[in-house]
Amino acid sequence: MDIYSTEEQQVQAIKDWWKKNGTSVIGGSVLGLAAVFGWRYFGEYQIEQKEAASDAFQQVVSQLATNNEELTPLANFVAANQGDKNYSVFASLLLAKELVVKEDYAQAQTQLNLALEGAPEELKGMIYTRLARVQAQLAEFDNALASLDKVTEPALVATVELIKGDIYLQQGEQALARQAYQAAVAAGAAEQDPSVNLKLNDLTEVEAANG
């Protein structure tokens, strides 16, 4: 199961959210501290911290692009920036993706749960879909379905139903898988992943043969 092959729209949503909200999120999170320590001092401190986090994040991303076999710098960044609910979220998501490539699904699940702790509501649905796929790889099917139940965004209906279909198919629940794939197609999943039509056709043929 290719966990990230159908998430172009979700990645774009992350970029759009960050462009729209990144500055305001950072500013809002320090408002109380600024009032306590003084705008001038804390303003300078905030800029320094933001620039330091940005530089560090860019550095580990560049290192990863050069050598995606070495995940230690990225893992260290995640551990060192848990108080930062912006860069740490995206670092955890990036690390989870690389761990999935290495088929280290248990550690990927840990990173996705860390991302959920600091993620804004706008991103949680997308993260839950990734988490569900990872949990399915670990054969934690009940947990995977529970994660999908937490996704409420209408734009993710097709993705949710597609993942449900894959989960039911892994469990041997062909009737439920067929229903989920039908719902996925109705919601436009074929535009994300054309293979859903093949999966649905295969199940339809099996049902007809068992008729």
Number of folding domains?
2
Shape: elongated
Task: Sketch the major β-sheet.
Answer: none
Task: Give unreliable regions as ranges.
Answer: 22-49
Oligomerization: single chain
- Determine the number of helices (DSSP H or I, runs of at least 4 residues): 12
* SS-derived structural category: mainly alpha
- The pLDDT mean sits at 74
The topology string of helices and strands comes to HHHHHHHHHHHH
Note the beta-strand portion.
under 5%
How many angstroms separate the termini? 29 Å
Give a short overview.
With 211 residues, this protein is mainly α. Helix content is 80%, strand content 0%.
How would you describe this structure to a colleague?
It is a single chain. It contains twelve helices and no strands. The protein is mainly α. It has two domains: 1-139, no CATH class; 153-211, no CATH class. It is elongated and about 60 Å long. Helix 10 crosses helix 12.
Brief descriptors of the model:
211 residues; mainly alpha; membrane; chaperone; SecYEG/CpoB_TPR; protein-containing complex binding; transmembrane helix
How are the SSEs placed, and which strands pair?
Blueprint: H1 8-29, H2 31-37, H3 39-66, H4 72-80, H5 87-101, H6 105-118, H7 121-137, H8 141-149, H9 157-171, H10 174-186, H11 189-192, H12 195-210
Helix pairs in contact: 2-3, 4-5, 5-6, 6-7, 7-8, 7-9, 8-9, 9-10, 10-12
